[in-house]
Design brief:
The chain is built from six helices and nine strands, in the order H-E-E-H-H-E-H-E-E-E-E-H-E-H-E. By secondary structure, the protein is an alpha/beta fold.
Length: 174
């Protein structure tokens, strides 16, 4: 039986020299790998009390949607700025080369809701930090973060030390 790590393809020097890109398409493109990923992520948070799953665009949708379906929880979308049609709240964050913004509908959940943030990857923690601020702006309580891949060398967990982070698989080295 293959481990989750066996399903992830590593592509050296993408998108820049020195980067080891962890490709999830080899996970989602294999029924056994995808099922193992979702089952593992659900199991990681089975003891967590949460009301809503917030999936981050776009790969967070890939993991958040089946988790929400399996656990019978609502799925709210955290999207790139300008992609949501209703009234939104937004949060900006820094990228390696510039900045970006994420947003949610203002009625994504009721104040006091316990929100599990789901994404494909945590590296430096910048995007996750913006999503946390976004949830908190709407009066939500971040119950935790569940990611498929964690890159511990980039210290995202340290940056977000006040929050519970569960990861299905870790890869040393960026």
């Amino acid at each position: 039986m293959k481990s989750i790590k066996d399903y992830v393809r590593t592509i050296p020097d993408f998108p820049h020299k020195g980067i080891m890109f962890r490709d999830i398409t080899t996970v989602t493109g294999d029924a056994d790998g995808y099922q193992l990923a979702i089952d593992t992520m659900c199991k990681l948070v089975q003891d967590l009390d949460y009301d809503v799953i917030a999936g981050a665009e776009s790969r967070g949708f890939v993991f958040g949607a089946p988790m929400a379906y399996r656990e019978h929880k609502p799925l709210v979308l955290i999207r790139k700025k300008g992609k949501l049609p209703y009234e939104t709240v937004s949060e900006s964050y820094d990228l390696e080369y510039g900045s970006a913004e994420v947003e949610m509908h203002t009625d994504s959940f009721k104040p006091g809701a316990r929100v599990l943030i789901v994404d494909d990857l945590i590296a430096t923690g910048g995007t996750a930090e913006a999503m946390i601020r976004l949830v908190e702006k709407l009066g939500g309580i971040v119950a935790g973060l569940c990611v498929f891949i964690e890159l511990p060398d980039l210290k995202g967990r340290e940056r977000l030390k006040d929050y519970r982070i569960d990861s299905a698989v870790t890869f040393e080295g960026a």
